[in-house]
Design brief:
By secondary structure, the protein is an alpha/beta fold. The protein contains 19 helices and 13 strands. It has a six-stranded parallel sheet with strand order 3-2-1-4-5-6, sandwiched between helices. Strands 7, 8, 9 and 10 form a four-stranded antiparallel sheet that branches. It binds nicotinamide-adenine-dinucleotide, 6-O-phosphono-alpha-D-glucopyranose (G6P) and manganese (II) ion. 6-O-phosphono-alpha-D-glucopyranose (G6P) binds at residues 108, 146, 168-170, 173, 305, 309.
Length: 462
């Protein structure tokens, strides 16, 4: 059984490998392969992965690190994809260009997300074609590569028969926060949810059969932020602030970057949304659509999340690997093993062993949300067996959420159509329709700057 990680040089690779390795028996995994287009970056991650598999856990799992597609995908059963097309340099553009025009600048939301989507559609299609060529016929691609909403819509349109499931770790991270806030085990939590990716709501959260949304509302109202101290413990350098910067500040070395910088507003925003719309627990990403003006006001256009990530997760990890190569000493806190890796590895177990376990996935609606289109790629709970996701029927959703979702869905669909047809007008419609953009003129200004910045990545638009 072979699992290939595409985007092997990702900062998330060590954590995912650890989750796979801890489930080696259920997955019956013989070999893990890392594939990336950046050889040196992936080589370094490979050094750490080798340590995890062979030194730390002492497992008999073969490790292959390659930039050759045939070597990467031949006979693979699972491909876990996590590519960042254009890297952090282009993420920075996605965040900074819209801000210059007074619009939300974010990795996956608003114009930044649309731009990142335009870069990622065709590399993802290429991945599917490579996997179809080399991998086992019953392969599954489990995709984390963002923007997952646009990637999933593009794959549905361009490769409808591909065995790909798109997933997101934000809802499960929110469930980790819920568990910490209420002092319960996440294993005891069962939830209902509807939405698009990075655009959804928890409608029910039960702990051992008890509905806890009322308690949660109280908790959030009282604390005026949704980030309990208990969540911040044991998370590792992935979400820790930069150690050196903290020493300068004289701050607590363990202080978490979720309590300062841009993430602070994310968790604060959950409180702010709940104060006005308390019925459901919102996905944190709704902040960018419901507080677009406030986001722009508290953002620094010269220092965005991309800079924060480069100075924390990225820096801590690669410095940790350099130190290991020089001294042989490892600091496990430089990588984060937890929900992100557990989620994808558990999903693979459900597919492989046909368990029928319930997972939140991004999948075709097929009537699950009766008042959303049949073909919409929605994020909903589904039962997972060897044939893939089987969606679970829900009641119609309220007009407020449905209206927001339709606007976002159509913005994303227009982007995909624009990319496929090379249509400037459709992409301009996509930008104009997005709730983060105040007028068609602003949409055009942002789009024209995006075309310039993305000339090495985007298809030509006419
Ligand atoms: P990263 O830049 O650290 O790693 C991405 C890797 O992908 C790099 O090593 C890069 O060289 C490689 N890559 C780029 N284009 C590629 C291609 N065409 N083929 C193969 N490899 C390619 O980024 P990261 O912060 O670790 O995030 C990785 C991806 O996972 C991003 O798309 C990010 O948005 C996504 N992500 C998604 C979720 C989710 O909830 N869906 C959660 C976390 C991260
Ligand atoms: C969450 C989301 C991901 C996103 C990540 C960004 O995990 O679900 O889709 O990639 O946050 O985190 P970062 O620290 O890179 O901004
Ligand atoms: Mn996500």
């Amino acid at each position: 059984m072979i699992i290939t990680l595409c985007g092997g040089g990702s900062t998330f690779t060590p954590g995912i490998v650890k989750s796979i390795a801890l489930r080696a028996d259920e997955l019956e995994v013989d070999e893990i392969r890392l594939y990336d287009i950046n050889e040196e970056r992936q080589r370094k991650i490979g050094v750490l992965v080798d340590w995890i598999l062979h030194e730390d856990l002492g497992l008999d799992i073969k490790l292959t690190v390659t930039t050759d597609k045939a070597e990467a995908f031949t006979d693979a059963s699972f491909i876990f994809a996590q590519m960042r097309v254009g890297g952090y340099a282009m993420r920075e553009q996605d965040e900074k260009i819209p801000l210059r025009h007074g619009c939300v600048g974010q990795e996956t939301c608003g114009c930044g997300g649309l731009a990142y989507g335009m870069r990622t559609i065709f590399p993802m299609v290429e991945l599917i074609d490579d996997v179809e060529k080399y991998a086992r016929k019953d392969y599954w691609i489990l995709n984390y590569s963002n923007p997952a909403a646009i990637v999933s819509e593009a794959c549905r349109v361009l490769r409808p028969n591909a065995r790909i499931i798109n997933i997101c770790d934000m809802p499960i991270a929110i469930i980790d926060v819920v568990a910490a806030a209420l002092g319960v085990s996440k294993k005891d939590i069962v939830y209902d949810y509807f939405g698009l990716n990075h655009f959804g709501w928890f409608t029910s959260i039960e702990v051992k059969g008890e509905e806890v949304l009322p308690k949660l509302r109280e908790y959030i109202h009282e604390h005026q932020i949704f980030m309990p101290e208990a969540f911040l413990k044991d998370k590792g350098a992935l979400i820790k602030s930069n150690k050196y910067e903290e020493k300068k500040d004289g701050e607590d070395g363990e202080k978490n970057r979720h309590l300062k910088g841009s993430w602070y507003y994310v968790w604060k925003g959950v409180y702010e949304i709940m104060e006005l719309f308390p019925e459901y627990l919102p996905n944190t990403y709704l902040n960018y659509y419901l507080q677009q003006k406030e986001f722009v006001e508290h953002s620094d256009p010269s220092r965005t999340r991309a800079n924060e990530v480069e100075e924390t997760r990225e820096k801590n990890l690669f410095e940790g690997i350099d130190r290991y190569e020089k001294t042989g000493e490892i600091d496990e806190s430089v990588f984060y093993a937890g929900s992100h890796g557990d989620w994808i590895a558990d999903l693979a177990i459900a597919l492989k062993n046909d368990t029928g376990a319930r997972f939140l996935v991004i999948t075709q609606n097929r009537g699950a949300i009766p008042n959303m289109p049949y073909d919409a790629m929605v994020e909903v709970p589904a039962y997972i067996g060897k044939k893939g996701p089987e969606v679970i029927a829900q009641d119609p959703i309220p007009l407020f959420q449905q209206g927001l979702m339709m606007q976002q869905l159509n913005s994303e669909k227009l982007l995909v159509e624009g990319a496929i047809e090379g249509s400037y007008e459709k992409v301009l419609q996509s930008f104009t329709l997005n709730k983060t953009v105040p007028s068609m003129t602003v949409a055009k200004e942002v789009l024209d700057d995006m075309i310039e910045a993305n000339k090495d990545f985007w298809p030509e638009l006419k």
